[in-house]
Amino acid sequence: MLKSLIAIRFNAMFFGGRGANGNNKKQGIGKRIGAVAIITFVILTMLLFFTSIAATLAEVFVPKRLDAPYFAIFNILTFGMIFVLSIFETKSELFECKDNELLLSMPIPPSYIVLSRSLSVLLLNIGEAMVVALPALVVFVVYGGSPWVIPTVIITAILLAMVATALSSGVGYIVAIIAQKFKNNTLVPVLLSIAFIVLYIFGYNAMLDSLFMLEGDSEMSADVLNSTFGAIGFLGRISLPDPLFFITFVVISVGITLLAWLIISKNYISIISTKSEGAKKKYVKEKLERSSAFIALSKKELAMFLTNATYILNGAIGSLFSVIAAIFAVSSRDMLYELLGMLGFASDTGFVPVLLSALLFGFASMTTVSASAISLEGKNFWILKTAPIPPMTLIMAKLVPHVVVTVPVSLISSLILLIGLGVELVYWPLVIFVPIIGCMIFAMLGLILNIAMPKFVFTNSAEVVKSSMPVFILTMGGLIFLMGISGLVFFCCFTLGSLVTALMFAAITVLLFLVMYLILTGPSLRRLSEL
Amino acid sequence: MTDSVLKIESFTKKYGDFVAVDNLSLEIEAGEICAFIGHNGAGKTTTLKAAIGILKPDEGDIYIDGVSITADPMEAKKRGAYIPDNPDLYEFLTGIKYLNFIADVYGVSSEVRNERINTLADKFGLTDALATRISGYSHGMKQKLAIIAAFIHSPKLIMMDEPFVGLDPIASHTLKLMMREHCEAGGSIFFSTHVLDVAEKLCDRVAIIKGGKLIRSGSMEDVRGDASLEDVFLELADTEVKEDA
After folding, report:
1. Among B24, B36, B28, B21, which residue's Cα sits nearest to residue B2?
2. Span B28-40, mean pLDDT?
3. Minimal C-alpha gap between B182 and chain A (Å)
4. Which pLDDT tens digit goes with each residue over B155-199?
5. What is the pTM of this model?
6. What is the nearest CA distance from B241 to chain A, expressed in angstroms?
7. What is the C-alpha to C-alpha distance for residues A494 and A506, in angstroms, rounded to an integer?
8. Exposure winner among A197, A275, A337, B237, fewest CB in 10 A?
9. Are A66 and A117 in contact (CB under 8 A)?
10. Degrees (nearest 5) of the Cα angle A138, A139, A143?
11. Tens digits of per-residue pLDDT, A79-117?
12. Nearest chain B Cα to A394, which residue?
């Protein structure tokens, strides 16, 4: 029974239906190979990204035998990333699946349902943990660290994913209960998640600063550093072949996971049958005003976005990073200019704005709202298909939430950077408009991908907004784009000068916009009509 | 061009090698209620979905009020409405916001939508629940909302897939009256059902489909003769079974 439940969950998460009207055609071999190639490519890129971080840290920490702080950083990075990013997704995966009532009507113990759903989430989380842990491990060994840490690091990463999954489902549930007391039950989880993320980013940076500062203290020996970090030290030592710490951590993680599983299983029926207190209201007749089809569709799209915490957190949270990065850059202004001086850009006033526009353009790729806008129609797609809505109107309306989220955030980030870094006025249009056009490019790209690879059959919206192929490609591809575009701008500024680079970059941006628009209004429009 | 409100012309739909509907032709005139009956998987839903533009015909064409659903889908859809067998609606919207959305999409004026929504919601006893999100509705309430939404823009043709499933007796009665009123006002209704008694009492025409083929259609009197619709349907099904054997 448990095996069947697990198989169903895995099938839903990874091989979920695509067709809108029962047309679940099997993917061709070419598409499968393409999908595997894309996934492999982005995973390799992520591994490279974390390898570069690991190499920077290993160069400083490993030769001094600061093994515990080194692994502490990666363990915190792993745990925090999984915990923060999956709080409400885990809750949604566990408690908000559409087959809840069906499964509970059968002779299946709730503990089996919880276990089968937790395992599918856990598998994804272990994958994320490995993307961080494996580069850290390889780099550690390459820099001369002991290979005896291999089994403990891998087991610890799996256990961290397990604890993060257990805690995130617990915290997510508690927050959801609190949110039900409020009229707008989407706002509370979203605000809390943003607070968690901001806390995580600033906490992580503060920890890194402290470690580097202590590492620079010549009077502080490696043994002292390894042993006097308190919680941080513990989080590092659990990855080392130290039986006491390792076994303690195994016991703690298994205990936390078992406890969470038992509590959730015991209260499962009452949890999923809890309804929002403010759900039922008596209608008072009001005069209804007429709007155009586009406005009506846009309002509907915004309502779909704003009433789904999982959608907001997975789709739009990326835009927050550009604001955080902007604040971070302004607060590190002196260090930034010092670094630029060392690179030979001290006298080049055009370099900073060109780089900023490229970075903000890249950050625009981290928002994936439009990449699940079509799939989220799910079984409701019949409404749009039977209504006299021109496909072009539908496409434009589908872009609205993405643009509404990203454009103001991009503008705010640009203004923070322009004012905070004192960029000359002549460069303001570049730093403002290139990222805004970038937001529109990625909004269109997300929609193009979703029209090409829709997933209409799902038991939980998290399957679409987090683990569907369009979102995956846009997220990972965006990260690659961010790194690529920054590197390219750097290279061009070095070789061609900032003015030529600025003009070239602006022209490429406009060209990309036109290409996306032509694809969206050409092949994608035709494909949408056939869905 | 044709005078029929619904004209299905040699419609064929295949799913891979499986022929779901095979060369089906059918016409419904203004003012007629036509029941579409057949066993499960006979091709009723496929035909209804193709008629409103959800599915594309592999062969043939379908016209709503003389407008081809394949050649001019926007215009054809304006003249029709569809109620699916399972009312999957936007659960994140309140009932009133959903109805207002549908009215906007079909370009219904402010005055008309206010009057129609209030009247229809009162008829179905749904007015009080209109401020509640659809996620909080029962199956029957969603069905009522889907029915109200279909009537908002006064379409020439309303197609319904098992419309009485999930409705309480009062709502069923209300729907039957509305269907009749709609046809008296010059509209037409084409609906699938397994409830043969309702079809017999309510409909002017009947179309029987089996294995994707239309095996009998015509006025209710012509099709059933002196027997009941149930007898005719069972006899046809039985004949087909024997022929198949």
Report:
1. B28
2. 90
3. 20
4. 999 999 999 888 889 989 999 999 999 999 989 999 998 888 888
5. 0.76
6. 28
7. 17
8. A275
9. no
10. 120
11. 888 887 776 667 777 777 777 777 777 777 888 888 888
12. B105
